TrEMBL record:
<keyword id="KW-0808">Transferase</keyword>
<dbReference type="Pfam" id="PF00583">
    <property type="entry name" value="Acetyltransf_1"/>
</dbReference>
<feature type="domain" description="N-acetyltransferase">
    <location>
        <begin position="1"/>
        <end position="144"/>
    </location>
</feature>
<dbReference type="InterPro" id="IPR016181">
    <property type="entry name" value="Acyl_CoA_acyltransferase"/>
</dbReference>
<dbReference type="InterPro" id="IPR053144">
    <property type="entry name" value="Acetyltransferase_Butenolide"/>
</dbReference>
<dbReference type="InterPro" id="IPR000182">
    <property type="entry name" value="GNAT_dom"/>
</dbReference>
<protein>
    <submittedName>
        <fullName>GNAT family acetyltransferase</fullName>
    </submittedName>
</protein>
<dbReference type="GO" id="GO:0016747">
    <property type="term" value="F:acyltransferase activity, transferring groups other than amino-acyl groups"/>
</dbReference>
Length: 144
């Protein structure tokens, strides 16, 4: 656990309030609205690592990040969010830092997709893939 101002960052999955995660992913972000509750619970259960941001005074979950990994050399960062009322305190940046720099994947090659947070992730060394080294097949159903 790490203290950041009035918040605690913790990678204990037992502490995560899945009701908050489900609510935010199903209504608050563009990339999660197509998933149902069962799918959100499944990706949570199968995550390699999760990091939650909690209000220190109440223990309430106010931010979240999830990763899946081969556990050896690469990981994918997903579902990073901070609830509206906790934004502006740098929690998004601290969630990313905790996940990719302060955990067991600090030496990994990290990947992610984003439509609107390029500035955040560039601060951590994310950038466009080298020419000709990255390929992707989009979702068959056209979902983000």
């Amino acid at each position: 656990m790490r203290i950041v101002g009035a918040y605690e960052l913790d990678d204990d999955p037992a502490r995560v309030d899945l009701d908050v995660v489900w609510k935010h992913l199903s209504t608050g972000v563009y990339w999660g609205k197509w998933r149902d509750r069962e799918q959100v619970e499944k990706v949570f259960k199968n995550a390699w690592r999760v990091v939650g941001a909690y209000e220190a005074s109440s223990g309430r979950l106010v931010g979240f990040a999830r990763a899946f990994s081969d556990t050896i050399g690469s990981a994918y960062l997903a579902d990073v969010f901070v609830v509206d009322e906790a934004r502006g305190a740098g929690l998004g940046k601290e969630l990313v830092r905790e996940m990719i720099d302060n955990g067991p994947g600090a030496e990994f090659r990290w990947m992610l997709h984003t439509a609107d947070a390029h500035g955040l992730y560039r601060q951590f060394g994310f950038g466009d893939p080298p020419e000709g080294q990255y390929m992707e097949r989009g979702r068959a159903n056209g979902q983000v």
